[in-house]
Specification:
alpha/beta, Spore Coat Polysaccharide Biosynthesis Protein SpsA, Chain A, 2 domains, 10-stranded mixed beta sheet, two-stranded antiparallel sheet
Length: 473
């Protein structure tokens, strides 16, 4: 009898716990879906209003420019670095310089830059306002008819954060842009990302719209036709990027709540970054960690500040072509997210911190645990199988529809030509992207936390593909 009572108590206890978890999981899904829906509506409306102003020529054009230093950290980027610099020389901007930081590359990145752009070695002092590895040599020259100064720093290997710190030390202008060596900026990107700074002197950082360049058609550095990549791995990422950058970032920007500015392209006030100690060399996600530090510094000192997001400042970057490279990338991203959030718990009172905590950092655990709890609840007779399958189907379809809407809205409102075949492909890929790829990446992010080995500050080894940004459509 005692054993029977104990077994019944245990069974009731398990059923109660499962029921509580199931309710939490349903609330979690509804909350995320609601946030995603509101974000897509707000983001689409924001882009629509901006596009309407440009078409009606209702924007104020000015001749004011913020001098900007463009810092390009590079490690083994001989495949892409020359085209990246050429695209920078074609920017529609008055006052800027290009600083390439060769972080002890094992290939010919440094030699290729010096030779292609006719740089010569110089001996000039650099004030070390931020810690960085030793600079071995400095090369200088100019491009775009002598209008844009180019500086090449060859330094000892120290990682991406260390390289950016070196570039900031060498920067001559009060604002700097950090961008990846495998990316390209649209001609008006600097003009667009500088607008928030001109509008508000309290702006200390500005994020941008990151889009994927794989298989797109460019002409003289300008996108003329967007194409979904032929390979599935980068194609899935296109849909993910469009949903992420159209949705949450535009909405969070309205509350000064963005905690991430992509390392592929972001604008910063140099003095503000120096005040918080620059990029953290020991952190994988140095870009997010810097934003967290800026939030914490200005909030703790009760100083006015703004961290903005310029959706019309576009950077085109290469996505990993191989699935194993994508997994390595997401492992690093999640470890960086964890390091940044645990290192700046003082910002926990900020609403966006809770969003990133539950829907970014803990999301893979919650989602996979939710599936396990749902299965166990069915085993214990707490759920109807048809109801559960219908719930997950509705959730998947809802996310897939919003993904396709984000993809179409972003490109239509930007007047970018998209082939009908690519629209159809987006429809076909949105469901597996929301179901299969999402949970594979969730499992990968969990494993990253528990089984990551090696030096976490090393550059990510991802295979690059040469892209001709001067090709003709």
């Amino acid at each position: 009898m005692f054993e029977l009572i104990r077994s019944l108590f245990t069974l009731n206890f398990v059923q109660t716990v499962l029921a509580i978890f199931e309710i939490f999981f349903v609330i979690y899904m509804v909350g995320y879906s609601s946030f995603l829906f509101i974000s897509v509506v707000v983001g689409g409306n924001e882009i629509f209003e901006g596009t309407k102003k440009r078409r009606l020529r209702n924007e104020i054009h000015h001749d004011y420019y913020v001098p900007i230093s463009v810092v390009v950290p590079a490690y083994n980027e001989e495949v892409t670095i020359v085209e990246t610099i050429r695209s920078l020389l074609n920017l529609d901007y008055r006052i800027y310089e290009i600083i390439v930081v060769n972080d002890g590359s094992k290939d010919s990145t440094g030699e290729l830059v010096a030779e292609t752009f006719h740089l010569h070695q110089v001996d000039r002092p650099i004030r070390r306002q931020l810690p960085c590895s030793e600079i071995l040599s400095i090369w200088e020259g100019s491009g775009a008819g002598g209008r844009v100064p180019i500086t090449l720093l060859n330094k000892e290997n120290g990682g991406k954060a260390d390289s950016i710190n070196a570039g900031i030390n060498a920067a001559q202008y009060p604002y700097f842009v950090c961008m990846d060596a495998d990316s390209i900026l649209q001609k008006d990107s600097l003009s667009m990302i500088a607008v928030p700074v001109l509008e508000n002197r309290d702006v200390v950082a500005v994020g941008s719209m990151i889009r994927i360049s794989n298989d797109c058609v460019f002409e003289n550095g300008e996108l003329v036709e967007l194409r979904l990549p032929k390979r599935l791995t980068p194609a899935f990422q296109v849909l993910e990027y469009e949903r992420s950058f159209l949705a949450s970032r535009i909405l969070l920007d309205k509350f000064n709540a963005n905690l991430i500015i992509s390392g592929a392209f972001g604008l910063f006030k140099k003095d503000a970054v120096i005040n918080v100690g620059g990029y953290h060399v020991g952190c994988v996600g140095e870009d997010m960690e810097l934003i967290m530090k800026l939030h914490a510094y200005y909030r703790s000192n009760r100083l006015p500040y703004q961290i903005k997001y310029a959706y019309n400042a576009v950077c085109w970057t290469q996505a990993p072509e191989r699935f194993r490279d994508l997994l390595k990338q997401r492992k690093r991203w999640h470890i960086g997210l964890m390091q940044s959030m645990l290192g700046h718990k003082s910002v926990i009172t900020k609403g966006s911190y809770l969003y990133y905590l539950f829907y970014e950092l803990l999301s893979p655990v919650i989602e996979l645990l939710g599936l396990l709890v749902t299965f166990l609840a069915y085993v214990f007779g707490l759920l109807n199988l048809k109801y559960v399958l219908a719930l997950f189907l509705v959730y998947a379809l809802f996310g897939s529809i919003l993904t396709v809407i984000s993809f179409i809205t972003r490109n239509y409102l930007s007047s970018i030509r998209v082939r009908p075949a690519d629209i159809l492909k987006a429809f076909l890929l949105c469901i597996p992207e929301n179901i299969l790829i999402r949970f594979i990446l969730a499992w990968t992010r969990i494993l990253a936390v528990f089984f990551w080995r090696g030096k976490k500050t090393r550059w990510g080894e991802i295979k690059r593909k040469k892209i001709d940004y001067n090709q003709v459509a």
